[in-house]
Amino acid sequence: LVSSERRSLEFLLSRPGGGVAAAIVLGGAPEALDAHPGALRLQLPRTGFVRCALRHGAALVPVFSFGENELFRQVRNPPGSALRALQARAQRALGFALPLFHARGVFQYDVGLLPFRRAVCTVVGRPLLLPRLPEPPPRPWRCGTRGTCGGSRRSSSGTRRSSGSPPRGASASRDPPGPPVAPRQ
Q1: 124 pLDDT exceeds 50?
Q2: C-alpha dihedral (23, 26, 32, 35), degrees to nearest 10
Q3: Of 6-10, 28-32, 72-76, 135-139, which one has max mean pLDDT?
Q4: What is the DSSP string of the chain?
Q5: What percent of the chain has pLDDT over 70?
Q6: Could you give the count of Cα atoms lying within 13 Å of 76 in the half-sphere of its Cβ?
Q7: Quick check: 60 and 53 in contact, CB under 8 A?
Q8: 28: Cβ–Cβ under 8 A, 6 or more apart, which residues?
């Protein structure tokens, strides 16, 4: 486990012999505050990892899990509310989000911190092989991530229906689905 800063990623990808994989959770703290059951709101504000992958010629592999937002219930905190302002202030001070959530308990199902028993379906897309560019363009997503997003949509459109995740708030294309992926129990 390392920091998601550029220096850490550069260190991992520049190791001699390769064989080191870096997993980056893109949404992070802002997305955690929008994680409510029945809704899916992606936040993809940073693309520096794409420039770093281009610099080292590393492959990008899109991975997405459907149903994660169904595992916990979060207290309503719409943007502009007093609770959201307090959470944003705490996030700036601490560096991570503090969502107020609950789920089930050990011996009862009403209140607790254990996740609800819901299926989570993880879809792994096709690797996007990137060329090695010592000086990547300032907006690298135009040459790389468009293909990644299309591949993710293609492989996820059929999976969402089979995983039991609600379709509202999530986007999908009309492309045929990729290979079936069994939901994790």
Answers
A1: yes
A2: -100
A3: 72-76
A4: ----SHHHHHHHHTSTT--------SSHHHHHTT--TT---------HHHHHHHHHT--B--EEEETGGGSSEE----TTSHHHHHHHHHHHHHSS----EE-B-SS-SSS-SBPPS--BEEEE---B-----SS--SSGGGTTHHHHHHHHHHHHHHHHHHHT---TT----SSPP-S--PPB-
A5: 74
A6: 2
A7: yes
A8: 43, 97
pLDDT in tens, 25-75: 887 778 889 899 998 888 877 778 888 889 988 899 999 999 999 999 999
Residue 85 has which token pair? 């302002």
Rg (the chain; Cα; Å):
18
- The two tokens of residue 165 are 């995740």
141 burial level (CB within 10 Å; 0-12, 13-18, 19+): middle
Residue with tokens 């000086």: 135
Average model confidence (pLDDT) for the chain?
A: 77
Residue type for 127, please? P
pLDDT score at 142: 56
d(CA 101, CA 54): 38
